[in-house]
Amino acid sequence: MRRVAPIAGACALFALSAILGAAPAAAQPPSGIVRPTTEPPKPTLELGAQLFAGNCASCHGIAGSGITKPRPGAGNLTGEGPPLRGVGALAPDFYLRSGYMPLGNPYEQPEANRVLLTDKEIRSLVSYVASLGAGPGIPHPKPSHGDISEGQELFTSTCAGCHQLEGRGGFVTGARVPPLQNLPAKRIAEAVRIGPYLMPKFSKSQISDSQLNSIIRYVQSTNAPDNRGGWSIGNLGPIPEGLVVWWIAIPLILFFCLLVARRRRSQ
Amino acid sequence: MKLGHWIVAALAFLFGRRQKHNAEEVAEELADDGGRGPEDRDPETGRLVPPGSPDRAAENVVLLLLVLAMLAGAGFIVVYAMYKAPVLPNELLGICMGVALVSIGAALTIVGKRLVVTEELEEDYPTADPEEQAKIVETVRDSGSRFTRKRLLLTAGAGAGGALGLAALTPVLSLGPIWDTAPLERTPWYRGRRIVDDKGRPIAAADIEQKTFYDGFAEGWSKEDLSSLLIIIRLDPSELHLPAGRSGWAPRGILAYSKICTHAGCAIELYRKPTFPTVEPEPAFVCPCHYSTFNPADGAQVIFGPAGRPLPQLPVMIDGAGNLRSAGNFSARVGPSWWGVRFRPSTEHE
Asked: Do B293 and A173 lie within an 8 Å CB cutoff?
């Protein structure tokens, strides 16, 4: 935020005009996508720039300069969003393919949604955002090279505090923590490196690429966990398990005790 | 609401039948004019309950079981007091408690089956009747006629019950230190001790990035020691509002706090960092156990949850090689709080 303050200041006038220009985009229903009337057949920077102006610039500013003070636009819509210069291909690939973006209300937590953009549009946008400034590329994890037990260990110490041991998600104060089931390896790797929303990011010095492979392998193993204990109770951990014991198992046992006692007494 | 129907059906099955049963019994009793009168007394002894024959063997078994329960109860206390992992494993606690309970149960069963003169009586709950009450007292007294060593058995019973009770109370001692709290106040930190990562390598200040968190440990110190564990983050120095007297504790915005929550002693494993701070919640440490939330920018004050005091902060300095070292001891006592801990000053090292 502070880093871009000078840039934002320099672009203030420019950005204002951009907001006004993007007003028709902002006036669209939040779930819709604004597309150019004539689309080129192949993903291009040109298409990416047009899509960005139509769908992203109301919050991320013209050419990804960011908007850090709310500014009323057309239709009383305000936009606010972080700058995108230097985020590389990594962030747009994650946010667009997971459906986190475009975000209808910038004051809400972005969450996994139906992806409204086509693959071609996403590739155009990713290459456009990546062209705004040098930044990290899309990772290529190979979970098959990972070690599942190392992955579980790392996941337990680094991720399970929020995401729970079986990656079922949960809450931190102020945000929901998403579940991690049925995600492609790339999404998981991208999230670890970016740290979306309130999640910390983890650099290669903290979690190396090979450790990341192990973590992804473990996370993907939670898609269909091996429930040796029988009923998994949603793999939510000890509290629901305790509730089941106290409220279901113990009353059942008491019920059968009473039943047995009755039979004996009436003999 | 099928479940509700099932529960109602189960309750009706259990209690409905019982009522019918009782009604039948009452009818029978009314029919044969039940209850005892003076004519029930034994004409020779004048007793309500006929004297039973003493059963020395059963008595001996009961005594033995009660002594066993006593020993097991005492064993629990000994194991608890002298607990040491491979020599006296915690399984012994369960075994002792189990033996004590099973022995007392078995002793009571034998008393009931072999030593108390038994007689089946099924009567309605009696209305208050002094004569009737005196009779019940007499019945109870007479029922013990088989015991030959009443006092010894009572003593053994009291001993077994007492040992079990004491054993059950022993863990209360673990709720908090009572006498010597000095070991809890020792920490490995003094000015100049190096902060290392989980593999024992020094941590370079230049490697500490914003928007993520790092674990730190005291060099050459056990990682099992709660006071060794640190959570290290970096914030922009302009964002910091540390309490008075802590200037210079966070060089280049690098902050180190105890990783142990001051509420129940869980490891602070969650660092909530906003990607876009303007619209997202502020940076915070969150404890995964009960969601105590601490603001690292102002000395880890509690902003949410059950914790009663801030996380202890460790002053950090950067040595000539650019690595992190502690510049002193924690600002407060490490670990969960108990009575009195909030009012005492800082800790002492080693």
From this structure: yes
Phi-psi region of B31 (alpha: psi -120 to 50; beta: other; left: phi over 0): alpha
Whole-model pTM: value is: 0.65
Considering only CB atoms, A195 lies closest to which of B270, B275, B305, namely B275
* pLDDT of amino acid A18: 45
Distance (Å) from the alpha carbon of A169 to chain B's nearest alpha carbon: 12
Please name every residue paired with B349 in a beta bridge, in sequence order, or none if there are none: B187
B18-32 pLDDT, tens digit each: 544 455 554 554 444
The secondary element (H helix, E strand) that includes residue B114 is none
Residues ≥6 apart with Cβ < 8 Å to B286: A172, A173, B268, B270, B271, B272, B292, B293, B294
Q: Which residues of B touch A197 (CB under 8 A)?
A: 274-275, 280
Average pLDDT score over residue span A92-106: 87
* DSSP letter (8 states) at residue B282: P
DSSP B311-348: PPEE-EEE-TTSBEEE-S--SS--S---TTGGGS---E
Q: Please say whether the beta carbons of A178 and A172 come within 8 A.
A: no
Residue of A nearest to B266 (CA): A161
Q: Which residues contact B279 (CB under 8 A, 6 or more apart)?
A: A80, A106, A107
ipTM tops 0.95: no
Of A194, A197, A266, the CB nearest to B280: A197
Q: Using an 8 Å Cβ cutoff, are B196 and B315 in contact? A: no
Angle at A232 between CA A230 and CA A237, to 5 degrees: 130
User: Do residues B100 and B51 lie in contact, with contact meaning Cβ atoms separated by under 8 Å?
Assistant: no
B176 — pLDDT class (breaks 50, 70, 90): low
d(CA B167, CA B163): 6
By C-alpha distance, the chain B residue nearest A109 is: B280
CA B153 – CA B335 distance, rounded (Å): 48
Residue A1 DSSP symbol: -
Nearest 5°: the CA angle A120, A124, A128 is 170
